[in-house]
Amino acid sequence: MPRLSLSWLGLGSVAASPWLLLLLVGASWLLARVLTRIYACYENSRRLQCFPQPPQRSWLLGHLGLIQSSEEGVLYVQDLVRTFGDVCLWRVGPLHAVIRIFHPTCIKPVLFAPAVVAPKDKIFYSFLKPWLGDGLLLSSGDKWSRHRRMLTPAFHFNILKPYVKIFNDSTNVMHAKWQRLISEGNTRLDMFEHISLMTLDSLQKCIFSFESNCQEKPSDYIAAILELSALVAKRHQNLLLHMDFLYYLTADGRRFRKACHLVHNFTDAVIQERRRTLPDHGIDDFLLAKTKSKTLDFIDVLLLTKDEDGKTLSDEDIRAEADTFMFGGHDTTASGLSWVLYNLAKHPEHQEHCRQEVQELLRDRDPTEIEWDDLAQLPFLTMCIKESLRLHPPVMAISRCCTQDIKLPDGRVIPKGVICRISIFGTHHNPAVWPEPEELHRTDVRHERDEGGAGADAAALSGAARPRGAAQEA
Ligand code: HEM
To answer: Which domain of life is it from (predicted)?
Structure first.
């Protein structure tokens, strides 16, 4: 093997093989990377000095672990909002910085930035990737834009209208179950569990036209989705398990893989079955038959949609979107609905007002079911739902990663490379946005009610549920 002299490195007569040279080049490259990273961190730290920060746990941990997924965590966020008002700096370990945002004026430049400037933060969503693939929630750049355009027809109100019947049917099954449980002497039930099954049942019908009867009997597919959602939430709590190679060695990791497999097999089977029926009819006949006979489901829309060049979605893309909608649609709506029921239970006077509004609308009607056009005729109920979503948002925060500097209206700059955590909960509980975010709503409504009777309810609720800026403009 030829030997090279390294005298030019000051190593005297030491001779080295090309391997040693390679090692030196590698080590120099690594050192350069580390130094660049340290310099970037130092530079970012300097630029981030204009953002206030709460006390850190230590220089090593930073603020890591200070916000738990618990009631204490929620109270801590409320404290942060009261103390800092719009933004604060959050350190994750000694190197990573996060800007927490809880005011619309600072959220706007981040969410209005082009998708390439503030893409979704990959770290936060990465655990969902093996399950949801490149669906809308996890994809970015051109793929996201193309799919977003291609999925627009799925939200046309002609497609959505017939879904209301599906929601009614699934809700009726849930109510029948509750009545049966009550008649059997049960006085307590876990609402969220029942409502989750109901939203999953509805989604399975809207997305796949599949009747699993999951509210009445166990379904492997639905059990797998519930398990996947629970496993992802659990994994977030344990830093060690954030590393893929460790996670998939654990029992939870193996369960995650198995459940993913089951869910993918279900979606693939529906897609294949549907593809088989598509060509026989021809698109126009197919559409006509579908609209006459039944609802056009989400899989149909995904199979039929085309981009500007006439290209359709691949089976893999369709699976990712269908799985994404099953995930994105069940937990959020179940949480939202559970909180609406909780809040109505806490405020029987508003509950009664909602009941009267619905009964008034349905009076002399047969069948007595809510339809699409009715939804606009329920202003008080709508306000209650919105107010409940404000107080208890199902998604507490979303994350974006700045690939370029982003300037805030007050001139401060969020440097490139920093993660922004947009706190939906914090913004909705920010006293600078909503007057007395926790209390005012309840007390004011009662107060107005005493003075103005039931008719003042809606005005009071809408007044309380209007952010400061809007109230001032009005
Ligand atoms: C109360 C109910 C819901 C809430 C609170 C909610 C909340 C959210 C939030 C905050 C995001 C933004 C995530 C981010 O940008 O990082 C999001 C995105 C998304 N949601 Fe929902 N969601 C709800 C219902 C649904 C339903 C019913 C579906 C589907 C059936 C759905 C499907 C999606 C999808 C596909 C995305 C990604 C959109 C994109 O990036 O283009 N969501 N949702």
So the answer is: Eukaryota
pLDDT surpasses 50 at 28: yes
* Pocket probe mutation, ligand 1, options 120, 332, 388, max atoms within 8 Å of Cβ: 332
Query: By alpha-carbon position, which residue is closest to atom 33 of ligand 1?
Result: 328
CB 210 within 8 A of CB 295: no
Closest-lying ligand 1 atom to the alpha carbon of residue 120: 16
Task: Tell me if 339 CB under 6 Å of ligand 1.
Answer: no
Residue 323, Cα to own-chain centre: how many angstroms? 14
Domain parsing of the chain, residue ranges: 18-47, 51-118+394-474, 132-346
Query: How far away, in angstroms, is 170 Cα from ligand 1 center?
Result: 21
Q: Across the chain, what does the average pLDDT equal?
A: 87
Note the pLDDT tens digit of each residue in 50-105.
999 999 999 888 898 888 888 999 999 999 999 999 999 999 888 889 999 999 99
Q: CA torsion sign, 345 to 347 to 352 to 354?
A: negative
Of residues 78, 82, 33, 86, the one with CA closest to residue 414: 86
Annotation: CATH topology of 132-346: Cytochrome p450 (1.10.630)
- State yes or no: pLDDT of 458 exceeds 60: no
Q: CB of 395 closer than 6 A to ligand 1?
A: yes
Query: What is the rounded CA–CA span in Å between residue 91 and residue 97?
Result: 5
Please indicate whether residue 276 or residue 325 has the higher confidence score (pLDDT).
325
Give the ligand 1 atom nearest the CA of 144: 41
Atom of ligand 1 nearest to the CA of 424: 10
- Please tell me if the CB atom of residue 167 comes closer than 6 angstroms to any atom of ligand 1: no
Does 328 sit in the ligand 1 pocket, CB within 6 Å?
A: yes
pLDDT average, residue stretch 120-127: 84
Residue 134's pLDDT is what? 95
Bridge-based pairing state of the strands 397-401 and 406-407 = unpaired
pLDDT interval class at 45 (50, 70, 90): confident
DSSP conformational letter for 54: P
Under the banding of pLDDT at 50, 70 and 90, the label for residue 286 is low
Q: Report, at the CATH architecture level, how domain 51-118+394-474 is classified.
A: 2-Layer Sandwich (3.30)
Q: What distance in angstroms lies between residue 201's CA and the mean position of ligand 1's atoms?
A: 18
d(CA 136, ligand 1 centre) in Å? 9
The pair phi, psi for residue 92, each rounded to 5°, is -110, 100
User: Does residue 472 carry a pLDDT above 90?
Assistant: no
Contact between 325 and 137 under an 8 Å Cβ cutoff? The reply is: no
Q: What is the pTM of this model?
A: 0.85
